[in-house]
Design brief:
323 residues; single chain; four-stranded antiparallel beta sheet; IstA-like_C; 4 domains; Putative transposase; 10 helices; alpha+beta; Integrase_cat-core; elongated
């Protein structure tokens, strides 16, 4: 079907394994096989093509057709040749396959990577790849078009990636430096120094580590550490991390101030534990059950001032001296 679209003719497909749907075509195959191929011996493909052209022109084309009662070559020259379209350009044979979109927003075609919008991650798409373009389809609908890349190449559209991943995926050094400068002037300058390399892309991980320190310690401490490192002409993220760790160790952490916490469930009033020196210290009532089942009320009163213990039980009073 793709070749038919390229050349501009229409196909009339028949059912699978149903030769009776196209008997005239099948009969022509038998005629070519028995009249041209039978008993012939060709040295190579070029000779077979030359002899096939001569056979079509001199033998098959000049015979009288059993159905039309006319010579096919004459019918072609008079009726069919004027209706032919111009010869199309050379057909660029494409690659058809199915690919899966991975979590890095890319799919692999012929050992090259092409970005796909994030909504298709995990999906299987159909691919048509020729020498110029690579087209991705989902159920017949065009999803993405990329220029064809050689093996090992990559074609990434920034619109297919989340905003926070564009800088890393596109190796955008200016965007990365701008992100660092947003946390402080010294941090931005330090990022530029880190990327000052003939191959700056291999130093991008160091800059991302610097941004990780900003998230961990905050922009202020990292800005101060980068400023000090620049004054000393030390360009090393490991040194920055060491400086921040030492500063954290020597800094007294701020403890939360003691506030008026709400009383807990079992908190007791301290006034309950106060002792009145002029009055009774304790007063309690105990109900005891004797073996006879008679309840006896017993009251004990201790007086600190007199130093005596008075026990009242069952109407009898007993006073004892306490030591």
């Amino acid at each position: 079907m793709d070749y038919a679209q390229h050349t501009g003719f229409v196909t009339d497909p028949a059912r699978i394994r149903s030769p009776k749907d196209k008997p005239r075509v099948e009969r022509a195959v038998q005629y070519v096989r028995g009249n041209y191929w039978a008993g012939e011996d060709f040295t190579d493909l070029a000779e077979a093509q030359q002899r096939a052209e001569a056979w079509c022109r001199d033998t098959a084309g000049r015979r009288t057709h059993g159905t039309t009662a006319a010579r096919p070559l004459e019918v072609f020259d008079e009726d069919e040749a004027p209706m032919l379209l111009p010869v199309p350009p050379v057909y660029d044979v494409p690659i058809f396959k199915q690919v899966k979109v991975h979590r890095d927003f890319h799919a692999e075609v012929a050992r090259a990577l092409y970005s796909i919008p994030g909504q298709w991650i995990g999906s299987v798409l159909e691919v048509r790849a020729d020498s110029a373009l690579v087209k991705f389809y989902a159920r017949g609908n065009l999803v993405k078009v990329h220029p064809r890349q050689p093996a090992g190449g990559r074609s990434t559209d920034p619109e297919d990636l989340p905003t926070e991943k564009v800088g890393y995926a596109m190796r955008d050094l200016d965007r990365l430096i701008g992100t660092c400068a947003g946390h402080g002037r010294a941090v931005g300058i330090y990022a530029e120094r880190l990327l000052d390399d003939p191959l700056p892309w291999i130093r991008m991980r160091a800059v991302y580590r610097l941004l990780g320190l900003v998230r961990r310690y905050g922009p202020g401490p990292v800005e101060a550490a980068c400023s000090t490192a620049l004054d000393l002409d030390v360009v090393s993220v490991s040194k920055i991390a060491s400086m921040l760790e030492r500063a954290t160790e020597t800094t007294t952490p701020l403890l939360p101030a003691a506030g008026s916490a709400a009383p807990s469930r079992f908190t007791r009033d301290p006034a309950e534990f106060a002792t009145d020196r002029t009055g009774p210290a304790t007063s309690g009532t105990t109900v005891a059950t004797a073996g006879t089942g008679v309840a006896t009320e017993r009251t004990t009163v201790a007086t600190e001032r007199t130093g005596h213990l008075t026990v009242i039980a069952g109407g009898n009073t007993d006073t004892r001296e306490t030591r």
